[in-house]
Fold:
Amino acid sequence: MEALLSAITPASTRLPGAAAAPADAERAGLLDSALFAHAESVSNRFFGKDVYYRGIVEFSNVCENDCGYCGIRKHQRRARRYTMPADEVVEVADWAFKHRMGTLMLQSGELNTPQRLKYLVEVVQAVKARTQALDAEQRSLDPSQLPKDTTGLGLCVALSVGELPREQYQTLRDAGADRYLLRIESSNPELYASIHPPAQKWENRVRCLRDLKDIGFMIGTGVMVGLPGQTLRDLAGDVMFFRDLGADMIGMGPYITEAGTPVADMWAAQFEGVDKGAHMKEMLTLTTRMNALARVTLGNVNIAATTALQAIDAVGREIALRRGANVLMPILTPTKFREHYTLYEGKPCITDTAEECQKCLNARLSMVDKKLRPGVWGDPPSYRQSV
Ligand code: SAM
Structure:
């Protein structure tokens, strides 16, 4: 814990948002360079230059929860609500498979209703059936003849649809879903409580993560970096939380304010008078430092260079790929829905098409001497070792 803490804090007196003294800045720069180089070498050892894609479809912004930071929370009045028709999601899956994405992530607001469960089961089954058939056609194989291993036919389906009862997770797993992403948001229960309404309990998030793992999902989790009230000790605790949970994938992003949310007001009160642009650049460094520490501590898990990094810096994700991250998540949501899935201010790519996103990312990867590993699920070696 103390070692992690000192690596997160190269300039030991610095707290998020506070300016470093010049002497500290020089020392911090040297320590950062060493940490980032080490993280890159660990990534290279496990993944070489390979980057895995997870195409993400934000299929609904309807949400019954009220997370204090989120632009699609139930009480965010500006959000125009939508749910994509199931067949449009399958069309996107078709496109993703043909463009060799390997994994499709279905993400939404949270809704614990029988109708939503039915919709999800139908979509998961249809995506699996459709892409397995396409794959079998291509490989001239009968899908039923294939061994049930972790890298199978068609697309790997990942879900990111929030907290549900264990039985629903089991139903979704039985329908064919392979992975589940549920960020813990913060491993500190008190900080978690300060950014969620009382009905949303930290203990339930942990219960969900444990149930998901127990049921056999590959699990992803993560936190937001730079939340009001967050300390560097909280962040060190987050890395230990990931390790203790046995996460297969980590997705961390900077916290970005969204007007009209309670946490944006908390942020404004804490950082009053701070140069926001400079602060957010610091959060980019802090987030990539967290990615690097996760890489060094957890070894061969998958780590995402998240979209929120690009909201801060046009090449934020590319920077992350040189500091321990090995996964990119191009947004495949049809353009007509994108602007309504606004989690935070300045979310990038909201007017782009899936084609544009993919072309853009391919070009960006070559800039940082990485290359797409197309058409594979990209299971983390950590998961393959544990099954
Ligand atoms: N509802 C599902 C859940 O909570 O797991 C998935 C959708 S939720 C919108 C996806 C993630 O967006 C959250 O886990 C959170 O970390 C991130 N997010 C929401 N608001 C954000 C903000 N203002 N800044 C940065 N990330 C944010």
